[in-house]
Design goal:
single chain; 331 residues; alpha/beta; Glucose Oxidase, domain 1; Aminopeptidase; 2 domains; 4-stranded mixed beta sheet; 7 helices; elongated
């Protein structure tokens, strides 16, 4: 191929920080599929500018996709300043040589999901899922991705449990395994997929699911399933959440997140408590992802938002599955 014996290098330009993190997805698709494409053209390794919004000399790691269950050529992310330098040299017509050394390895192991719940008093069979994931990349400590999400969801559930009054519906907290390194197959892979497939008919009683996996900065918007916009439930939620700075959004929550997402095609609706992700991709998947980056005041606001919303859902009789989008009247 045209890259035989060479290192494939891709510089997509610096990712821009955005509140909703929307600049991340397009670049990760290149990171995920690029190594296989480079391998097909004869490359011996794959190099890409880190998918992150910072200017630190700390590269961002991330998943690349296997092909038919097998890893592809060695793949590396380059920090922003180093990518700038490599791209400058290429632009000047210089021949760039890079020495690559990796401590990465592949191995087979077993991951787990950890599940705890507050059983509902009136409708124990009706389940509300609070999702996050346990695993993290080993460059840092995984504080924002996703230790914070686990802390937020379990603290919200604990606040409800400590109140002394059981909710009508069951609250199920799930710490999913194998979110970061998942290579899903029909039989195995990510913890979210394994959970969804393993529920069988019980999934029909899953009322709604939400996920906290975007750091610990403040929640600014509530997103509900289609049909809930303008509903009495949304109005009630707004009364509870507005005092802590969370506004109702007309945007429909359709994805949930990587972990709870596999339940969506099986009929489970999602809610979203949208967090401010402006600085998330400065830290995400780097050695900078450490506990000192967590702002306790913003973390507490997340817990309050989750606890308040969950109380409302758990003690209501709202059926999100039955809600239908409102069709505007024809003039």
């Amino acid at each position: 191929g045209p890259l035989t014996g060479k290192i494939a290098y891709i510089d997509l330009g610096q990712m821009h920080a955005m509140q909703d993190g929307s600049g991340y997805g397009p670049q990760t698709r290149v990171r995920g599929l690029g190594p296989a494409a480079a391998q097909d053209k004869g490359a011996v390794a794959f190099l890409i500018r880190s998918v992150g919004s910072d200017e630190n000399r700390m590269p961002h790691t991330g998943t690349t996709r296997y092909v038919d269950g097998h890893q592809t050529i060695p793949s590396f992310a380059v920090s922003a300043p180093d990518a700038d330098q490599i791209s400058r040299l290429i632009e000047w017509g210089e021949t760039v040589r890079v020495h690559l050394s990796s401590t990465a390895r592949t191995y087979q192991t077993t991951s787990q999901n950890v599940v705890g719940e507050i059983t509902g008093k009136t409708h124990p069979e009706q389940v509300i899922v609070l999702g996050s994931h346990m695993d993290s990349w080993d460059l840092g400590t995984g504080a924002i991705d996703d230790g914070a999400g686990g802390a937020i969801t379990v603290a919200a559930a604990k606040a409800i449990a400590d109140s002394g009054r059981r909710p009508a519906r069951t609250l199920r907290v799930i710490f999913y395994g194998s979110e970061e390194v998942s290579q899903p197959t029909p039989q195995t892979g990510n913890g979210g997929g394994v959970y969804a497939r393993g529920q069988g008919a019980a999934l029909d009683k899953h009322i709604i699911a939400g996920e906290s996996d975007f750091g610990a900065d403040r929640v600014y918007a509530l997103r509900l399933p289609a049909g809930a916009q303008g509903s009495d439930f949304q109005k009630a939620a707004t009364r509870v959440l507005y005092p802590i700075g969370v506004l109702a959004s007309d945007r429909v929550e359709t994805e949930g997140g990587v972990d709870v997402g596999p339940m969506g095609p099986l009929g489970v609706p999602f809610f979203g408590l949208a967090q401010d992700g402006t600085r998330y991709f400065d830290l995400h998947h780097t050695a900078n992802d450490t506990l000192d980056k967590i702002d306790p005041a913003q973390l507490n606001q997340n817990v309050a938002a989750w606890a308040g919303l969950l109380w409302l859902i758990a003690d209501s009789d709202v059926d999100f599955r039955a809600m239908k989008p409102v069709t505007p009247a024809t003039p």
